[in-house]
Amino acid sequence: MSDVVEKTLSALPSLLSLDSQAGAGKLSPSSKLGNLIKGITELTSKHEEETLIKKELESIKEQVASPNTTMRQMKEIMVRAIYCEMLGYQASFSYIHAIKLAQQGSVLEKRVGYLAVSLFLNETDEFLLLLVNTVLKDLQSTNLIEVCMALTVVSQMFPKDMIPAILPVVEEKLTHPKEIIRRKAVLALYKFYLIAPNQVQHIHSKFRKALCDKDPGVMTASLHIYLQLIKENPESYKDLTGSMVTILRQVVGGKLPLDFNYHSVPAPWLQIQLLRILAYLGKEDQGTSEMMYDVLEESLRRAEMNHNITYAILFECVKTIYTVHPKSQLLEKAAECIGNFVLSPKINLKYLGLKALTYVVQQDANLALPHQMTIIECLDHSDVIIKRETLELLFRITNAQNVTVIVEKMLEFLRLTYNVWFIQTMNSVFSLGGDVMQPDIPNNFLRLLAEGVDNVEDRQLRLFAVDSYVSLLQGETAKLPQRFLQVISWVLGEYSYLREEESDPGSVMRLLARLLDQRHTSTETRSWVLGAMTKLCSSPVYTAIYWQNLHCYSTERHWLYKTKCLSSLFKLYLTTLIFEVDLIISCLSWLWCCFIPQVDSSLSFLDGYVSDALAAGAAPYKSPHQRQEDLVQEKALSLEPYGLSLPVSLSSCSITDRRSPTLLSMSSGLSGNSTELSHQEGSTTLKLEGVKRVWGKDGYLAQQQSAGETPTPLVELPSPLLSPQSPPSQKPSSGLEPDQEKRQLASSLFVGLGSHNSVCLVRLPSTVWLFIKNCQSANQSNVVKSLFKPFYINSCQSALHNLLDSTTVASEGGAATTTTPQQTSQRTLDHTTSNGNPHVEGTEQRVEAGGPLSLIRGNGMVAVVPPRDLPLTSHLPAELSGLARSEFTPLCSDQDSSLALSACRVYKEDALVLLVFISNNNDSALHQMVLQLTCKELEVYIFQTGLNNKVPLFFSEIPVGRSRNQDRNTRVSSNRDLEKPRIFCESFRNFCSPPLTVSTGDYGKMWLSFSHDLKQNLRLVTTEHQEPLTATLDALKGKLHLHVVDIIGSEGIVACRLLQGPGQGQPCLLHCRVHADSLAVWLRSPVPELPDSLLYHCQKALTET
Amino acid sequence: MQFMLLFSRQGKLRLQKWYVPLSDKERKKISRDLVQTILARKPKMCSFLEWRDLKIVYKRYASLYFCCAVEDQDNELITLEIIHRYVELLDKYFGSVCELDIIFNFEKAYFILDEFLLGGEAQETSKKNVLKAIEQADLLQELWEPPQGWLSELSLPAST
């Protein structure tokens, strides 16, 4: 009794304070918890809080340990302990007392005890074992509240191993008259099923009973179990489909008590649960799906109220409809529903709309099309979550045509969100992907790095990149791909200054210098490195190292490299270092020497050959003019029709002789000039008369066009790209309406989806699509506004090298050239010699490639601009290079001179060879080229030395006495390594390349196994700077494509293989030894005639040398 | 549902309920990370987050943030409504609930939560039934221990 009084008194103050504290009226500030909470809220620092809680915990510890503490006090202590734990302070000493409280307390105390247990403990805690008996006792209690509490704690956590101990009692509760007990029992069994499915296997029938429970609450609870069961094994529960459909129909039809309504929607939780179950049941099962179509449709129809909860149901409905076996009518309706989400101003719904789209586009990518503009807007949404979902959606609709744009968007996103992760990922992408990567990946990466305002975040990203690259360079660099090294150089050059606080400022410079020294570094990469060093040298510390290297490398033979040096020098001269004039002069003089071509105009090196040839009875050289006269005189044959095509107005040609493949893209020093020039050139690129004009410099021109304006040439479009310094009005980013910009982006993102004109919102004529597709291959930049940034010119080496290339030419030759940035991925080249029958006349053979030679590109743009001079000599097939030949005559080229056709004649003993060269003057490799060659009377051979640069592609040969009536239509579809280099030549019909490549060891084995041999002495070739043996073997190698296996001292071993004829593929081995003034050769082969024949050719080859 | 957190605008945890077994350390890390992430988000932003492999659904009511973590295939909107329903329940029980109610009577907030969600699943979605169950338990306290029960009932406004 006194106890009661005492408690009453202690509670009084809280009663009294009720009125004065309206807001916090329900708390008891005098209680210890109240004091604690109040005390904490009054504190100002974390430290003070720590001290206070420590003190509190000490006092709690003391009290729980005291035997005098009553259960009631314990309850209050537990609440305080829970509070301390919530604040993040460990009160593990109280766990055991929580269990004790649950065990021994009255109902009120028990409740707190159970709560404390469920908050403190984990499923795995051993303390829980102590709870089992208490739970068991409470489950069997007659007090409903106690049973409820026990079931509640069991449904939250229970030791797995102890389930059998209480399972029968819980099972029993399934038939309890009180629905709340049944419901909790079902949920307890659900928990058991989750942690130990085997233990409840035998009571699956009881779950069915719960499903049929008359109380909707119990039924709902049982659906949790069924969802799990059906998810794991839908096949076993197909029979439930009918019941589920019925339940859903009843729920949707409002048959449940109004209690279950939520914002006047009947039991939304139940509906969603059922929809999810139906999705699992109907997935890939037409029969089952058919059962649910009606109810799904009804759900869609009923959920029309504008409230979150209806949207929740709609969303689930759409998901289910797209998961089960499709019914087109339903799909349409569901797709319409998605529109409600996507177009909603509420951001949550928008998010779910995107999510739903992500889900449905997997079935039909076209469903994204009606929402293009929303998607584009979401792409720039300020909320990262929306952005990410949009990217996820884009990822799902990625196809070959829009992949670059989408990847770029993703990279952009990554940069914004995960700095460190991004750099690391890109590092591994570069290291692994290496040189096989598409060039725009590094370009995009660099652009991302350079973009953006100079805020702290960007600087951090850059600094991180610099740091990670420095540590990479400090390690082993041999394995890093060249592209990655280029990226590294660029970043280090631009952003090394961010490391200024670093103790050793020269370290980056030294690392770069080391890179220059390494053998595996390609020339192109070296240029990048040098560019980086140039940028760095504004700091005097770096300069010493820089000079050393610059001087050193200006002696390098590669002219590209020299240009780079030169540009570096200029930059240096202009910017910083006037004082090192001596060095500059010395460098310049070096460079000067290198640039002066050393030409032997008298062709004295040919004298020997000419005299030999004359001695052998060859006709003396006559100039073309002379020869023509001779011909006219002798045969009186009119050559009029053919005369026209060969010397096609050279004067009109504006192409300079050299087009460097890979220059300047890295040269920031020259890029200023270069872009201007290329801009000028860009204006003469494409002729588009008759082409419908859809894109202008301001973007999509639909409106102007309808107004009937004269279309300006499409040519204008690439020009902003070429000219970072062009007036801002030319930049699409400022010139375009934002809306149009988005439309452009949309068109590039959604390219390849759907039938363009019918479905897409952004209605574009098909020509535009074509254009975009073309751009995708080389310069997708045309479509993406963000690419029109000045930086791009400096750094995007490969995407723009074709542009920059032309600049080099211009700066060298001083003449304007034409280049288009746009490059079609496939070119069709028709070379027709239909009416130009080549003439073969006696010994004085002449071939004129007559008739219309045209290069047709794209949509019928025909241009014949012959290139002026062609450095094609080096591409002559080796066996033809020594023979007398005519000059290289340019035949034609396409307008931008990226493809050129030229020819020359080579006079052989027994035939005249007409060599036709197709040169790709662009830097970008031709990946595919379809070459159709129609030639009635010539025998055509294809000779290929690589497709990426100047390519002599084929030559035709007119053998003496060969029938002229062969009709040949050679169609060569050449992928890069489709055609192996193949030489066929009349003079040594039987031999040679590809050389037989064997190791010394293999050679030894083969040597022993071959039976037919021959020995002979040969003449030694003597040159000034080579060993006689090496010189001789080199000569043989050059002429006959023999493979020199090894040279040891005065001995050398050589191998070759028969290319054609009956013994095709048979090897022949040569062993050569220098003996006095001659070369003793020992030939061995499995074929008897081979050594003899080869020896003959060797003799011949050496005599010619 | 994997867990539910209630925290204030200042980042103070007010309630935490974990439905998956996690160590104390993990729990602390998760709540710290999440509180930080969510507080950094602007009011107009979307209520859903993808966080690790979970989906976070959060909503702010006055000065309190309610935050639930659900699995990927769960319905975000319905989770949002679970939060709302819980707030409704608290509101009904405390009578226009405020943060202080939850601070000082957090154990009651837990009891209500346990009647509404059990083992991470919605147990009883009928508002009436949940409150009835709580009332019964409260009433039982009263019967068993008249003085304390009477006082504690007084210290609460009549829960209807």
UniProtKB/TrEMBL annotation, chain A:
Family per similarity comment: Belongs to the adaptor complexes large subunit family.
Function: Subunit of novel type of clathrin- or non-clathrin-associated protein coat involved in targeting proteins from the trans-Golgi network (TGN) to the endosomal-lysosomal system.
Subcellular location(s) per record: Endomembrane system
InterPro entries hit by this protein: Adaptor_Complx_Large_Subunit, AP4_complex_esu, AP4E1_C, ARM-like, ARM-type_fold, Clathrin/coatomer_adapt-like_N
Protein name per the record: AP-4 complex subunit epsilon
Source organism: Oncorhynchus kisutch
Annotated ranges, domain AP-4 complex subunit epsilon-1 C-terminal: 994-1103
Assembly description: Adaptor protein complex 4 (AP-4) is a heterotetramer composed of two large adaptins, a medium adaptin and a small adaptin.
Gene that this sequence comes from: ap4e1
Sorted UniProt keywords: Golgi apparatus, Membrane, Protein transport, Transport
One GO cellular component term noted in the UniProt record for this chain: AP-4 adaptor complex
Primary subcellular site in the record, as a coarse category: membrane
Stretches the record annotates as Disordered: 705-742, 812-843
Bias-annotated ranges (Low complexity): 817-827
SMART domains the UniProt entry points to: AP4E_app_platf (SM01356)
Protein's GO biological process: intracellular protein transport; vesicle-mediated transport
Coiled-coil ranges per UniProt: none
Automatic annotation (TrEMBL), chain B:
GO-annotated cellular components: AP-1 adaptor complex; clathrin-coated pit
Keyword Protein transport assigned: yes
UniProt-listed InterPro entries: AP1_sigma (IPR044733), AP_complex_ssu (IPR016635), AP_mu_sigma_su (IPR022775), Clathrin_sm-chain_CS (IPR000804), Longin-like_dom_sf (IPR011012)
GO molecular function terms listed in the Swiss-Prot or TrEMBL record: clathrin adaptor activity
Topological type in the membrane: Peripheral membrane protein
Annotated ranges, domain AP complex mu/sigma subunit: 1-140
PROSITE patterns, alphabetized: CLAT_ADAPTOR_S
Principal location class: membrane
Subcellular location: Cytoplasmic vesicle membrane; Golgi apparatus; Membrane, Clathrin-coated pit
This protein's UniProt keywords: Coated pit, Cytoplasmic vesicle, Golgi apparatus, Membrane, Protein transport, Transport
Pfam family, one: Clat_adaptor_s
GO biological process annotation, one example: intracellular protein transport
Subunit structure: Adaptor protein complex 1 (AP-1) is a heterotetramer composed of two large adaptins (gamma-type subunit AP1G1 and beta-type subunit AP1B1), a medium adaptin (mu-type subunit AP1M1 or AP1M2) and a small adaptin (sigma-type subunit AP1S1 or AP1S2 or AP1S3). Binds to MUC1.
Role of this protein: Subunit of clathrin-associated adaptor protein complex 1 that plays a role in protein sorting in the late-Golgi/trans-Golgi network (TGN) and/or endosomes. The AP complexes mediate both the recruitment of clathrin to membranes and the recognition of sorting signals within the cytosolic tails of transmembrane cargo molecules.
Family label: Belongs to the adaptor complexes small subunit family.
The name this protein goes by in its record: AP complex subunit sigma
Organism field: Oncorhynchus kisutch
